[in-house]
Predict the 3D structure of the following.
Amino acid sequence: MNRRDHYKSGRIANEVKQSMNSKLHRLPRYARSDEVSVHGPCAVAGQSGGLFMKLVLTVLAFSVTSTGLAETARVAAASDLRFAFDELQPVFEKSHPPHRLELILGSSGKFMQQIENGAPFDIFFSADVSYPTKLVVSGKAVAPVTTYAFGRIVLWSAKVDASRLTLANLTQPEFRRIAIAAPDHAPYGARAREALQHSGVWNQVQPKLVFGENISHTAQLIDSQAAEVGIIALSLAVNDALKTKGGYFLIPADSHQPLEQAFAVTTYGRNNPATQALARFMRTPQARQVMQRYGFSLPDEGKP
């Protein structure tokens, strides 16, 4: 029995005990007058014992049913999914009552480390397929690892019209600070570095770089003009909150390795019904339409 099942069984037992006590105190006196002797799980004596048995079974069935259906899935998600999950979460919860999602956004590399160290996440949406794959190998997640999208990177600015720029323009002196996500643990940062290297400007721009903790934080650095320009996820740039502040330049997909994004259910969350429901939901037309709206390519469409 894992930690989740142990907790649930204890909770159900406590609810059953409280419910039985409450019901018994409301029964007529004659129904409670006989001594009830319990030997083993559910041995009863006397005519009132039959009533007692029915009550136990009714309360137990209700308790197991209600607690079994209502679950919350703790979702560790790469921060490029911030705006997509703003739409996905209410659609999922409306179509899967009474399940709920608790969304935690961050960098994929750090989430992998946290899950390796026992963090209680139920499902992991990574911006890099290699991270959930490593968790399956280490036994911290269960197969399959499911590719849900391919991401893209863009050059974006809240100060200038980045749609008129290319990566070659970043060497110009007017761009004193350029933001990218930390390449060592953020997949979008790693792809930004690859694109800058491919364009032949990495050495010139490296002294100008400022690093976001994740791709969402990187967008905040640019939005606040702590950096004049930077490389962020297309899924963030197309949201109304950012696209009204500046245009973007779509960085060619052949300038970096594909951003193959995948999810896996963790070992901790494998028995959570809400987790399994979310994994199925991500394959539905509703979920696919949301992902496409935020600039993601879907697996059956091929790599961008």
Notes: Confidence is low (pLDDT under 50) at residues 6-49, 55-68. The longest helix spans residues 3-26.
